[in-house]
Amino acid sequence: MTAEAGHPANGLDEVVHQRVRLGILAIVHEARRVEFGYLRAQLDLTAGNLSKHLSVLEEAGLIEIEKGYEGKRGRTWITLTPAGGTALADEITRLKQLIARVEPGTS
Amino acid sequence: MTAEAGHPANGLDEVVHQRVRLGILAIVHEARRVEFGYLRAQLDLTAGNLSKHLSVLEEAGLIEIEKGYEGKRGRTWITLTPAGGTALADEITRLKQLIARVEPGTS
């Protein structure tokens, strides 16, 4: 095997693979549209930490962040973009390849 | 679902999950004992970047690093510790849980 072919880990994108961001993308994929507070509770994060990771994903075009109101309370909603759906699917594909190398015969 | 149960992403350990370190652990698991240069080629890393990640894994007790000689050439060999094997297996378990949430019905 050449260095160029390399290991499935080489194909993982750090923007998507990072633990918190992978959690965000997986939850938003599952729920379609999620509120900031829900994500924060699900992932057990501080608001600051969640905001930081949401910004990385938004700048990469993987999510959309929408601010609005529910009654008088400000709310932030997060949805997955088509590029975000593709990026999550690519990550899952590579993770499966990696798992298959770690557990030969079980895939 | 409570925040405490939360998402499978919460259970991922950043020491193991980080892209390069996950690659290192997977390759060392597969090959049992690997040489530094082989890892570097497989993961397409600079020596400095690989060394940094190996130190993190060694400090966490997940790998053993052994320096020796092959003829007159210095060589560095890496093996997985039992704790490293367990940590990799835990990571794979949680990744499978996460994949099952993203792809319901395919698991």
TrEMBL record, chains A, B:
Domain Winged helix DNA-binding, residue spans: 20-99
Molecular function GO terms recorded = DNA binding
Q: Keyword annotations for this protein?
A: DNA-binding
What is the top-level taxon of the source organism? Bacteria
What name is this protein filed under?
DNA-binding transcriptional regulator, MarR family
